[in-house]
Fold this sequence. Notes:
Blueprint: H1 21-26, H2 29-52, H3 62-73, H4 77-99, H5 101-124, H6 127-135
Helix pairs in contact: 2-3, 3-4, 4-5
Amino acid sequence: MPSHLAPHPLGRPSAVPHDSWRQRIREKPGLAQVYRVAVFLAGLLCIAVGVALSVLPGPLTIPPVLLGLWIWSTEFDWAQRLFRRFQRKARQAWQHAKAHPVSSAAITIGGLLAVLAGVWALRHFEIISRVREAVGL
């Protein structure tokens, strides 16, 4: 099978200008794979941060996920399509937050206060050390 028809484990590469540094990277097969994996891992890290922030209400999840999708979209064709779709959803969420500033702020501040109360309770009641003792660590 010709190399241009071989399946790509991380998906088809996105288009890049022919005289760009990324094109020069793609011309070196070993370096191209290392670069693609690095781009994938960088995007995955940002998205993982966004998912971790999803326990908080409000728009705090959106920026790191958008950043991760943007990073992916620089190298992966499938991510470009997903990024455009997510961008539309993010704009809708931002418009909603601007249209309802009091409730959006209250939900975001309430979520942050709930997290702070949870952290305080974990420390005050020494829950982590009690769980460690119960498990035997």
